[in-house]
Amino acid sequence: MANLSTSMDASFWDLNIASPQKLDGVARSVPGEPIPLDGTIASRALRIQQISVLGNGFPLGIIPCYSPPPQKELGTLALHSLFIKAATSNWWLGLIGQFRPKKLISNLKAELCEGDEWELPAFKDVAKHFLDKSLFSLGLCSQIALTAKSSMLFSTEMQGEKKRRCYKAMLFHKLPEHDITMEAAWPELFLDHKGKYWEVPESLSLDCTSLVSESGFRYRFGLHKNTGLPQAHTYVEGEAPHGLMPGLCAKAAFSYEKSKDFWRQKEMKEEVMIQTDKGRIFRPSYDIRLREPHSAISGIIGGTCVAWLGGREPVESGKHRALGADIFGSACYTWQHGKFRKYFSDLTRIDARLDVSSLSALAKTISNSLVNSPKLNAGDFVSLPKLNLIFQQQVAGPIVFRMDSKISLASSSGLHGPQLEDMIYSLNYSLKLLQSGKVVAWYSPKRKEGMIELRLFEF
After folding, report:
1. Are 18 and 451 contacting, i.e. CB atoms less than 8 angstroms apart?
2. CA 420, CA 324: separation in Å to the nearest integer?
3. Lower CB density within 10 Å: C or N end of the chain?
4. How far apart are CA 44 and CA 42, in angstroms?
5. Which pLDDT belongs to residue 317?
6. Which residues contact residue 151 at a Cβ distance below 8 angstroms, ignoring those fewer than 6 apart?
7. For residue 219, which of 228, 227, 210 has the smallest C-alpha distance?
8. Where, by residue number, does the polypeptide cross the bilayer (predicted)?
9. Quick one: pLDDT at residue 315?
10. Best-predicted range by mean pLDDT among 132-136, 334-338, 431-435?
């Protein structure tokens, strides 16, 4: 199934979004905005852990990524590598480096073209370009296990073209039925639904999440505080999202999730153990979560509540109130052909999920369009239902092509005519030894970004 839990998590919480703009590979979604594409959700594995594993499959352990830089002369290509890794039984530390080669190549080319002769001073002038701080970025990350169920993470990074460092700290504690997380970041990078980045000077959060019960019931609650006015990470037109304005708020949400199979072909032991001339061999699916052809429908419905406790700047439109509650829901249909076991033509999968992130906003939009004008403003357009389509097709062996797309059921000019809002292309290489792990190389035309990630037990 397409991930239904993001319906609740995106309602008032800032999800981790995969982004090459930071060395830790993570930006946050703006709370209260439309649900992000499943393909944009960041890996559960820390970026430094990903690079440690992925580096074994790349020349010299160098992993490329692609993103628009704060300064155009730096170029869009960035190279990541793990410089230092140290670990004990309950502690580890790693140092990541980033290098942008375009500016160096351009400077060297200009330096060599200006000189008339190959003299020693010319080579000294060339050497200084390798010491340009704007070409390099460094990120340090460390995690320590406090107890068997508690751990603490601290990371810091310094982008070469910036004057100040970024810091992040996280404390995680696992209870029998809940996960508790405390996070602090200064500054924190957020990504809005338009694909634009914003920096909040300081972001603090405390979150308690229940595990999904057998009945499908789940809930979470917590506190979130932003300090300082958000600033555009790069040149951005328009005002900063209201969800990033300074203030302290309490959040709570619950959801109920169910699924039903129309048909499902269960995996048989005879299919996993294959008889050959050399005897019986074990040949499982490339991904255990894609091993059974089926057709199914699933759905989630829930409610959210937010209370602003002070320190927040007023909004003239009145859109964001001191106390508010809402209802959200999603419905998904999944069809899969193939067992993802053979080398060719053994996997075709389609997920179609309809998301309603705010029932009250949708009802208001429909009412206004019927009474006043069919033309929608920007706020109404954001609240419209979104159709998320995920298409997956096996290319060869463990390689799968995937396309995530988000479609609004109406355009900003009226209630008729669907509009494509976002799309992501990716190639996935499933790692059979990890049962449901894969290496993902994705590209977002809207954000003009791409990166390579290691993801575990995720779609």
Report:
1. yes
2. 30
3. N
4. 6
5. 41
6. 143, 144, 145, 171, 172
7. 210
8. none
9. 45
10. 334-338
How far is Cα of residue 352 from the mean position of the Cα atoms in its chain?
19
Q: What is the spatial distance between Cα 346 and Cα 45, in angstroms, rounded to a whole number?
A: 28
Which has the closest alpha carbon to 41: 234, 204, 256, 191? 191
For residue 22, count CB atoms less than 10 angstroms from its CB and return exposed for 0-12, middle for 13-18, buried for 19 or more: buried
Q: Is the pLDDT of residue 35 over 60?
A: yes
- Tokens read off for 289: 């979560």
| CA of residue 147 relative to chain centroid, distance | 29
pTM: 0.89
SS3 for the chain is CCCCCHHHHHHHCCCEEECCCCCCCEEEECCCCCCCCHHHECCCCCHHHHHHHHHHHCHHHCEEEECCCCCHHHCCEEEEEEEEEEECCCEEEEEEEEECHHHHHHHHHHHHHHCCCCCHHHHHHHHHHHHCHHHEEEEEEEEEECCCCEEEEEEEEEECCCCCCEEEEEEEEECCCEEEEEEEEECEEEECCCCCEEEECEEEEEEEEECCCCCCEEEEEEEEEEECCCEECCCCCCCCCHHHCCEEEEEEEEEEEEEEEEEECCCCHHHHEEEECCEEEECCCCCHHHCCCEEEEEEEEEEEEEEEEECCCCCCCCCCCCEEEEEEEEEEEEEEECCCCCCCCCCEEEEEEEEECCHHHHHHHHHHHHHCCCCCCHHHHHCCCEEEEEEEEEEECCEEEEEEEEEECCECCECCCCEEEEEEEEEEEEEHHHCCEEEEEEEECCCCEEEEEEEECCC
Helix axes 120-128, 101-114, angle to 10 degrees: 160
Cis peptide preceding 187, ω within 30 of 0: yes
What sign does the dihedral 215-435-345-57 (CA atoms) show? Answer: positive
Rounded Cα gap, residues 221 and 206, in angstroms: 8
Query: Using one digit for the tens of pLDDT, what is the confidence trace for 143-152?
Result: 999 999 999 9
| 30/243 Cα distance (integer angstroms) | 6
Backbone angles phi, psi at 106, to 5 degrees: -65, -40
